[in-house]
Amino acid sequence: QQQVKQSPQSLIVQKGGISIINCAYENTAFDYFPWYQQFPGKGPALLIAIRPDVSEKKEGRFTISFNKSAKQFSLHIMDSQPGDSATYFCAASLNSGYSTLTFGKGTMLLVSP
Amino acid sequence: NAGVTQTPKFRVLKTGQSMTLLCAQDMNHEYMYWYRQDPGMGLRLIHYSVGEGTTAKGEVPDGYNVSRLKKQNFLLGLESAAPSQTSVYFCASSYSVSYNEQFFGPGTRLTVL
């Protein structure tokens, strides 16, 4: 059972455009939603994260939008740059006990010059 | 401060051979994780540890064993490698499991022939 569904699998955006990646979750007890960025040949690294008590979090050109009632959250990359070309993973976890991260399957983003 | 390191970086095995992947972290993190990454499958948790001397099964534990004899090290073993274990393996560590940032190593690319 896939608990975090991510779409699209791949995305091509022109330089300067907006990249949007969506995730949907099933477990209403999830309360921590991070996004990880992975460049080719490297390990993933935390990009930005949100808790469900806010509907939006912005860090530079990266914004997470969170819709608790729809059980969806999305990553928006404004003014996308070729250097943003990477694979992006959404994830979710519980804030209780020894909860671990459940990752989406990833989105490969290519920003064309 | 090296962060999370993994050895080896690459390895080719024949079916039935055994090997151990080593993960080391110098951040004094309590929690450590082993993931495998396959195309289109995202990151799947194999085993994790919530402290020295403890281990727990993740989503895909079959065919793997782990040990955490020292806080800074987390070993992943394959007793009898199978072609289905061809993958990129990532180790990660975190200070806690709640609202935590997981720091990933650079990965080990394993091919089983």
SSE topology sketch:
The complex is a heterodimer of chains A (113) and B (113).
Chain A: E1 4-7, E2 10-14, E3 19-25, E4 33-38, E5 45-50, E6 56-59, E7 62-67, E8 72-77, E9 86-92, E10 102-103, E11 107-112
Parallel strand pairs in A: 2-11
Antiparallel strand pairs in A: 1-3, 3-8, 4-5, 4-9, 6-7, 7-8, 9-10, 9-11
Chain B: E1 4-7, E2 10-13, E3 19-25, E4 31-38, E5 42-49, E6 56-57, E7 65-67, E8 73-78, E9 87-94, E10 103-104, E11 108-112
Parallel strand pairs in B: 2-11
Antiparallel strand pairs in B: 1-3, 3-8, 4-5, 4-9, 5-6, 7-8, 9-10, 9-11
In short:
With 113 residues, chain A is mainly β. Chain A has no helices and eleven strands. In chain B, the strands form two sheets. In chain B, strands 2, 4, 5, 6, 9, 10 and 11 form a seven-stranded mixed sheet that branches. Chain B has a four-stranded antiparallel sheet with strand order 1-3-8-7, with no helix packed on it.
Model description:
The complex is a heterodimer of chains A (113) and B (113). With 113 residues, chain A is mainly β. In chain A, 0% of the residues lie in helices and 52% in strands. Chain A contains no helices and eleven strands. Chain A has strands at 4-7, 10-14, 19-25, 33-38, 45-50, 56-59, 62-67, 72-77, 86-92, 102-103, 107-112. In chain A, the strands form two sheets. In chain A, strands 2, 4, 5, 9, 10 and 11 form a six-stranded mixed sheet that branches. A five-stranded antiparallel sheet of chain A has the order 1-3-8-7-6, with no helix packed on it. In chain A, a hairpin with a 4-residue loop joins strand 7 and strand 8 (72-77). Chain B is an all-beta fold and 113 residues long. Chain B contains no helices and eleven strands. Chain B has strands at 4-7, 10-13, 19-25, 31-38, 42-49, 56-57, 65-67, 73-78, 87-94, 103-104, 108-112. In chain B, the strands form two sheets. In chain B, strands 2, 4, 5, 6, 9, 10 and 11 form a seven-stranded mixed sheet that branches. In chain B, a hairpin with a 3-residue loop joins strand 4 (31-38) and strand 5 (42-49). The radius of gyration of chain B is 13 Å and the shape is globular. The model of chain B has no long low-confidence stretch (mean pLDDT 94). The chains are: A mainly beta (113), B mainly beta (113). The interface between A and B is medium-sized, with 25 and 24 residues.
